[in-house]
Design a protein that fits this description.
heterodimer; A: mainly alpha; Growth Hormone, Chain: A; 20 helices; 74% helix; B: mainly alpha; membrane (chain B); transmembrane (chain B); transmembrane helix (chain B)
Chain lengths: 444, 53
């Protein structure tokens, strides 16, 4: 099951490497920087919308259907974009990659979540961490691969069209693995030797089930929405301005940072973002979801405070703090499906996750807006170097504190939101499970 | 070549040969791990520029 989930997430994670195509599109089709970002922006909007509105359908039709739809939309989005680039019709690139491909992003993002949680009831954080780490890894693969392809085919509109065509075909083939392998476990399946009783005694881990429709009516859902939104906004605060930030912090010091080193810093942050997804979400299986978010938000605020107070005094300290913040950013994404499962059960956890992803879309607008606006205003006020970012860092600390408080307010869901008994998971004995499914977590 | 009798207990002295399931598991993990390794390699090469660039 994990390779099936990874094949989808590693593919759709390509979205974050869209910037590779921007310069070529701008020069060959005569576009502005804002226009060339449109396919990506529409894609992210469609990701949020299709995850939010398609979640219930994904739960009803199952992960194989969802992965097939995701693969079909994502690949045909590239093919439409190829046609658009070839005929120099930019609207078709936007419609293909952004609208059609964006539906593939949203459906693909949530497609393996509830299935993974059902296969790994003993380690749901680790299971979803692997898949969501794949989304971070997708850009790592696509970025150098797309750049090499443009180098081979040329950066004219025909070269871009050829590159899009190859992407569409290659991703369809790559994602086919997920479509073919994904399987839902039998009702009530559990790993041999795993005893759920101890875990279910934890105060926030429910044995009841809550539907997506009921979940959005609970304060717990909206507390988690705030938690995710604040955590993502704070992470974007660093990600958005990473290269200019490290350059400005150490400008005029003996440890000044050049363009190439700044690019290295950005790459290192991507690595921390990806590693945090697996590391912290796996840790949440041991220390609990609420505690791990206390770490993301509380220690994250402290890390921002250290950067704020020490300024450009120490480059290693600055880099370490930024890496920790980015690992928490990734961890926040990867841990949230398991947190939802703890609170609302596995019944419609994928659909609930889809609705929660609107917090990501909001943070995607909020984070860059805050950081860029504040940096511009500080520049206009005559500040320079680390002084450009002081106010932004204070705002990020404030946002993390708000998230911390929202996390503290999370309590078990009131029984009136629970579904009637038939949806409640039955736990057969290990023998029953073994009889039903010979080797359930491996692909067949 | 002998075939086990249906219903007979497995011979404990004979280690079972790797099943097609194991080969498929290895193949599927390689399917996703190889592209990821390529991406990580490219990323780490770029990240080292923070210390050398």
């Amino acid at each position: 099951m994990p390779p099936a989930a990874l094949s989808v997430h590693l593919s759709i994670g390509q979205a974050y490497a869209w910037s590779v195509f921007k310069p070529s599109l701008e020069s060959s089709l005569g576009l502005s920087g804002t226009a060339s970002a449109l396919p990506f922006q529409l894609g992210i909007v469609m990701l949020g919308l299709s995850a939010a509105f398609g979640g219930t359908l994904v739960e009803r039709r199952g992960p194989r259907w969802a992965m097939a739809v995701s693969s079909g939309c994502f690949s045909s989005g590239f093919l439409l974009a190829a046609l658009g680039a070839y005929t120099e019709q930019f609207w078709l690139v936007v419609f293909g990659y952004g609208f059609v491909g964006g539906i593939g992003l949203g459906i693909g993002y949530i497609s393996p979540v509830s299935t993974l949680i059902k296969w790994f009831p003993d380690r749901p954080g680790m299971a979803t961490g692997i898949a969501i780490m794949g989304f971070g890894g997708g850009a790592l693969i696509a970025s150098p691969w797309s750049a090499q392809m443009l180098e081979s085919f040329g950066e004219s509109s025909r070269g871009i069209a050829a590159a899009f065509l190859v992407h569409g075909v290659a991703y369809a083939g790559f994602m086919a693995l997920g479509v073919l392998l994904v399987r839902v476990p039998p009702e009530g399946w559990r790993p041999a030797g795993w005893e759920p009783t101890r875990q279910e005694r934890a105060p926030l881990v429910t044995t009841a089930q809550v539907s997506a429709r009921s979940a959005v009516r609970t304060p717990q859902f909206w507390c988690l929405w705030v938690v995710l939104c604040m955590n993502v906004t704070a992470g974007i605060g660093i990600l958005e301005k990473a290269a200019p930030m490290i350059t400005d912090f150490f400008a005029g010091t003996s440890a000044s940072v050049g363009a190439s080193a700044a690019a290295g810093f950005v790459a290192l942050l991507s690595l921390a973002n990806m590693a945090g997804r697996l590391l912290w979400s796996s840790a949440s299986d041991v220390i609990g979801r609420k505690n791990v978010y206390r770490v993301y938000l509380g220690v994250g605020a402290l890390m921002y405070l250290v950067i704020r107070q020490t300024g450009g005094a120490s480059k290693p300290l600055f880099v370490c703090c930024a890496l920790v913040i980015l690992s928490f950013y990734g961890g926040g994404f990867a841990t949230v499906p398991a947190y939802l499962k703890d609170l609302f059960g596995t019944y419609q956890v994928g659909a609930i996750h889809g609705r929660l992803l609107t917090a990501w879309s909001t943070a995607g607008v909020l984070g860059p807006l805050i950081v860029n606006r504040v940096a511009d205003s500080q520049k206009a006020a005559g500040h320079s170097g680390a002084g450009l970012y002081g106010l932004s860092l204070d705002i990020m600390i404030g946002l993390l504190v708000v998230g911390f408080v929202a996390n503290e307010l999370v309590r078990p869901v009131h029984p009136r939101h629970h579904e009637p008994e038939p949806h409640t998971t039955h736990h057969p004995t290990p023998k029953e499970a073994a009889d039903d499914t010979p080797d359930p977590r491996r692909p067949t | 070549m002998t075939h086990p009798t249906p219903g007979a207990p497995p011979d404990p002295e004979h280690t079972p040969t790797p099943s097609p399931r194991h080969a498929l598991t290895v193949t599927t993990w390689l399917w996703v791990a190889l592209p990821l390794a390529y991406g990580l390699y490219e990323l780490v090469s770029k990240a080292t520029k923070l210390f050398t660039g």
